[in-house]
Structure formats: structure tokens, C-alpha cells
Amino acid sequence: MFAGLFVVVAGFERAVLTPDMIAAVGQLDLTSVPVLATVTAVLSNLVSNVPAVLVLKPFVVDLAHSSRGWLTVAMASTLAGNFTLVGSIANLIVAERARAAGIDVDFWRYFRVGAPLTLVTIAFGVLWLSIT
Question: Which of 64, 71, 129, 132 is 20 to 30 Å from 123 by CA-CA measure?
Fold first, then answer.
């Protein structure tokens, strides 16, 4: 499954990251911690956090303060994985292990805890990175 994510990312880059899409993303103020964190969190929940980082690499490398950009991407992609059950492979592994033990962790049960937790922790991370 993990290897399949890289296949998906390669397909995503070829099909979706067209010159027009790259130009549109380039119009966003990715030097802004809240903007980059939001883009990273959304993308992390669309394609998972590891592929999201790979897709964002060309945009973050060229930022004026790339170290802050990488810290923002690391924080937001990691914490965004908590938003939904499918946000991170680790969540799926835990849910499968729980199911084997007779505990049902379904999408909505997870989401009721994961979504608010993710929003609060990413907001804290954005605040922290904005003031440091």
C-alpha cells in the first residue's frame, strides 16, 4: 500500500500538476505559514501525508525562507494525518489491529475526535511557527 502511494503521486504529478496548476499554486502566498499549513493539510488528506510532502517539494525549495517552509510542511503534514482515518497509513494500521481485537474504529467515530484535534494542533503549530 505504501509503495502504491508513490505510484499515485507520480500519476498525480503528471495528470494534475500541469503548468496551469503550478502557476495557480505559485500565486498563493506560500511564504505565509497559515497558507502553507492549510495547503499542506488539505493535500495531506487528499493523497496522504508522505505523497503530499513529495508534491510540495518543488514549491517549498524555492521559498525565500525554505527552512520555515519545511518546518511548516513537516508540522502540517504530520498533524493533518490525524484528521480522518485515511489521513495516515498509521491510522489504518491501528484501525485494522483494533478490529482484530474486536474494537470497531469506523470513519465517523474517528473523525469526531480526529478533526477537532487536528484543527487545534495545526492552529497551535501555525501560531508557534509564526512567532518563532
Answer: 64
What does the alpha-carbon distance between residue 118 and residue 122 come to, in Å, rounded to a whole number? 6
User: End-to-end alpha-carbon separation of the chain, Å?
Assistant: 37
Domain residues of the chain, as ranges?
A: 2-131
C-alpha cell belonging to residue 110: 474517528
Q: What is the pTM of this model?
A: 0.80
Q: Which amino acid is at 43?
A: L
Q: 102: which DSSP letter?
A: T
Q: Tens digits of per-residue pLDDT, 67-122? A: 999 999 999 999 998 999 988 888 999 999 999 999 999 999 999 999 999 999 99
**CA distance linking residue 124 with residue 74, whole number of Å:** 14
Residue in the structure block whose three cell numbers are 485494522? 96
Please name which of 70, 79, 68 lies closest in space to residue 131, comparing C-alpha atoms: 68
Query: How remote is the C-alpha of 38 from its chain's centroid?
Result: 9
- Reported as a single tens digit per residue, the pLDDT across 34-80 is 999 999 999 888 877 877 888 888 889 888 889 999 999 999 999 99
The answer to whether the beta carbons of residues 44 and 81 sit under 8 Å apart is yes
